[in-house]
Amino acid sequence: MRKALGLMLMLAVLLGLTGCSEKQENAENPKLLLGFSQLGSESSYRIGNTKDIEEQAAACGISLMMKNANQKQENQIADIRSLIAYRVDVIAFSPIVEEGWDTVLTEAKKAGIPVVLVDRTIQTRDESLYAAQIGSDFYKEGVMAAEYLIRKADRMELDQIRIVEIRGTENSTPMKQRQQGFMDTIAGDARMRVLDSVDGDFLRSRGAECMRKMLETYGDQIDAVFSHNDEMTIGALPEIEAAGYTPGKDILLISIDGGQDAIDLLKEGKINCIVECTPKLGAVLMETAMKLKRGETVERVIHPEEQVFTDEQDLSQLAPRGY
Ligand code: AHR
Predict the structure, then answer these.
(1) Segment 152-211, tens digit of pLDDT
(2) Does ligand 1 come within 6 angstroms of the Cβ of 202?
(3) What per-residue confidence (pLDDT) applies to 78?
(4) For residue 106, what pLDDT is reported?
(5) Domain boundaries defined on the chain
(6) Residue 277 belongs to what H/E stretch?
(7) In the CATH scheme, what architecture does the domain 138-277 have?
(8) C-beta separation of 251 from 215 below 8 A
(9) Is the CB–ligand 1 distance for residue 43 below 6 Å?
């Protein structure tokens, strides 16, 4: 009896984790071929997102056709065209930038294939070109990053904080909205001054390059770095050390994503704050794709719950991040 209860509990946990109520094909769970165009492999977020989507598709018994555009919009457009030609049931994709999708999405619409935006969103004059968007509230992430910096300035009784920003990919949703949320939030605080803002393209190598140049230009004027992702933050750290500063103390570091490597650096005191951007969007995507296949209406915008990890917290019991 106890064994059976244990098994039932394990099953319930597994179902809860996958978000799939059934794996067998029936009217509720029709056979589904999902085409997914991933934008690249630029960060641990991205690799974690691809892995999560593959795992959740397998757990739900959904056939997945995964494409990777290697950071190029033209590749992504070609990938979406090949998914249309293949006549998949649902197309999902993470748009690298916001503009330039109308033509290919009109082709998907004409072919009768519903489209789901995952992670980032697009700018379009025709909102009917996609059925749903599943992804983080990037504006709120920027707000949370700035709120931490304001709290830190209060606690340290600082009368000024000179900030440099390392931005994500130009014209991408997270870059635009994180910047907006951050700037709007610090705007009312006279202690905050932005010295510079540079494009790091969400890449570790670019994060290092940007940091090196800004250290050369501003030297010890830099009090804080707002970096739009962990990858660029991890790239910037050795540059700060090589210039003779102690990251987390001489220069405050605020990052976004919350992958394991960055969390470990936060625990070591080298990063001060990380706003979570979860790549685990697979379960909701599978549920949404199933609903679309069944012809049901779906929620237009779905944001996951996200938290902030900071040097104000005891993170010793934090579960492994999985990306
Ligand atoms: O769109 C989400 C962002 O894309 C993540 O913050 C970043 O790491 C990734 O490349």
Answers:
(1) 999 999 999 999 999 999 999 999 999 999 999 999 999 999 999 999 999 999 999 999
(2) yes
(3) 98
(4) 98
(5) 32-136+279-306, 138-277
(6) none
(7) 3-Layer(aba) Sandwich (3.40)
(8) no
(9) yes
Global pTM reads: 0.92
Q: How far is the CA of 81 from the centre of ligand 1 (A)?
A: 24
DSSP string, 96-135: SSSSS-HHHHHHHHHTT--EEEESS----S-GGG-SEEE-
What is d(CA 143, CA 140) in angstroms, rounded to the nearest whole number? 5
Ligand 1 lined by 46 (C-beta under 6 Å) = yes
> How long a stretch of residues is the chain?
323
Same CATH fold assignment for domains 32-136+279-306 and 138-277: yes
Ligand 1 geometric centre to CA of 46 (Å)? 7
CB-CB neighbours of 158 under 10 Å: 15
User: Collapsing DSSP states into helix, strand and coil, what is residue 105?
Assistant: helix
Under the banding of pLDDT at 50, 70 and 90, the label for residue 24 is low
DSSP assignment letter at 240:
H
pLDDT tens for 278-318 read: 999 999 999 999 999 999 999 999 999 999 999 999 999 99
Q: State both tokens at 1.
A: 């009896």
pLDDT digits (tens, 9 = 90+) for 106-131: 999 999 999 999 999 999 999 999 99
**Closest atom of ligand 1 to CA, residue 231:** 8
Gap from CA of 141 to ligand 1 centroid (Å):
12
Query: CATH says 32-136+279-306 is which class?
Result: alpha beta
Residue whose pair of structure tokens reads 């999560």 in the numeric block = 52
| Residue whose token pair is 């492999």 | 41
Q: What are 290's two structure tokens? A: 């199933």
